[in-house]
Design brief:
lipid metabolism, alpha/beta, lysosome, 2 domains, TIM Barrel, disulfide bond
Length: about 425
């Protein structure tokens, strides 16, 4: 009882987001388009969210784990009401947020909403100043909201240091389970000493560390570069209930080629990143849908150990190798090409990638779905990687050295939290 009473004061430990959240988010694709007269199909309105909920429920997304329908900025009226409460824009959300949440819930989905810890949101709508934190948390809970993204425009470092933990306590106090996504570290440069990831993991379920993603390969690469340059700081901070968030998946939009789309999905999966799509699910191409609905990819992303992967090789040939340890001594490997000329044949061995000696793995190609074969640690192998593309493997142990079998068995029974392979 004493522990339970203390929890809201300590931080968020709310039992939520034990694997990276999956769903859909409005911002990257639809931004702050509020002109429903000129563009009724694509403006930020209840109709857009009704339609995206329908697509998630009816087109196979929900069954794969894509369960959140997340509103971003620009949903509210320009002023709070007489009681100081946030209200949705009456023309664009005539039914109200509670009705939208009910609609989403009836389809087996969850609703996310956006707030900002400042005078205004980034788009110029009413923010959640410190005096409004408890009131807004109670409002969101009463509406039936399941996730809150709290941005940081128009707020000071001091206000953020007070407000982000205060919102965690306020959400807990509502008694409603609400996943809490913080933009706090992104506004403080994402790195120590300004950002304390130990404290952050006790306050937030996920957090934005770095810049907003844009609809370009250049933007994706800048995020990848930052996350893996600082992986020694970021990787230990992630785990069940608290995730680094490199921002939305832009697969299905305009800026990425087919190969680049496959690369974003693979690299976000290796990072144990939330999979929050921001694309038009009403018109998405079959090829983009196939990438986003890859079952083995999602299984890897949602691995219960929740260990964020690392870049383990960076070659002069502009080939990079990433490794994510998974439960039951399995692993995911991503071979990524930054080349822009032609497909490249990359040769290595599991031994060179620091896998244990005398082990044998069944190798499955994540995108092709096919079993490549059995591979001994000492065997040389080659993969052909397209420019700006990836080859992604899922490796299951067929035979392991005796000392590793014990670790694998522990993991299989949920006894250990450390991976067999690092």
């Amino acid at each position: 009882l004493a522990l339970a009473l203390a929890l809201p004061a300590v931080g968020l430990e709310n039992g939520l987001a034990r694997t990276p959240p999956m769903g859909w988010m409005s911002w990257e694709r639809f931004r702050c388009n509020v002109d429903c007269q000129a563009d009724p199909r694509n403006c930020i309105s209840e109709q857009l969210f009704f339609e995206m909920a329908d697509r998630l429920a009816e087109d196979g997304w929900r069954e794969l784990g894509y369960e959140y329908v997340n509103m971003d900025d620009c949903w509210s009226a320009k002023q709070r009401d007489a009681a100081g409460q946030l209200v949705p824009d009456p023309k664009r959300f005539p039914s109200g947020i509670k009705a939208l949440a009910d609609y989403v819930h009836a389809r087996g989905l969850k609703l996310g909403i956006y707030g900002d810890l400042g005078i205004y949101t980034c788009g110029g709508y009413p923010g959640t100043m410190l005096k409004h934190v408890k009131q807004d948390a109670q409002t969101f809970a009463a509406w039936g909201v399941d996730m809150l993204k709290l941005d940081g425009c128009y707020s000071s470092a001091e206000e953020q240091a007070k407000g982000y933990p205060e919102m965690a306590r306020a959400l807990n106090a509502t008694g409603r389970p609400i996943v809490y996504s913080c933009s706090w570290p992104a506004y403080q440069g994402g790195l120590p000493p300004k950002v304390n990831y130990t404290i952050l993991a006790e306050i937030c379920n996920l957090w934005r560390n770095y810049d907003d993603i844009q609809d370009s390969w250049e933007s994706v690469l800048s995020i990848v570069d930052w996350f893996f340059t600082y992986q020694d700081i970021l990787q230990p901070a992630a785990g069940p209930g608290h995730w680094n968030d490199p921002d939305m998946l832009i697969i299905g939009n305009f800026g990425l080629s087919y190969e680049q789309s496959r690369s974003q999905m693979a690299l976000w999966t290796v990072m144990a990143a939330p999979l929050l799509m921001s694309t038009d699910l009403r018109t998405i191409s079959p090829s983009a849908k196939e990438i986003l609905q890859n079952r083995l990819m999602i299984q890897i992303n949602q691995d219960p150990l929740g260990i964020q992967g690392r870049r383990i090789v960076k070659e002069k040939s502009h080939i990079e190798v990433f490794l994510r340890p998974l439960s039951q001594a399995a692993s995911a490997l991503v071979f990524f090409s930054r080349r822009t000329d032609m497909p490249f044949r990359y040769t290595t061995s599991l031994a060179k990638l620091h896998f244990p000696e005398d082990a044998v793995y069944e190798v499955q190609d994540v995108y092709a779905g096919k079993i490549v074969g059995a591979l001994k640690t000492a065997d040389n192998f080659s993969v052909v990687i397209n420019p700006s593309g990836v080859v992604m493997w899922y490796l299951r142990p067929m035979a392991l050295p005796v000392q590793l079998w014990h670790v694998a068995r522990q993991q299989a029974h949920g006894e250990g939290s450390r991976p067999a392979l690092l």
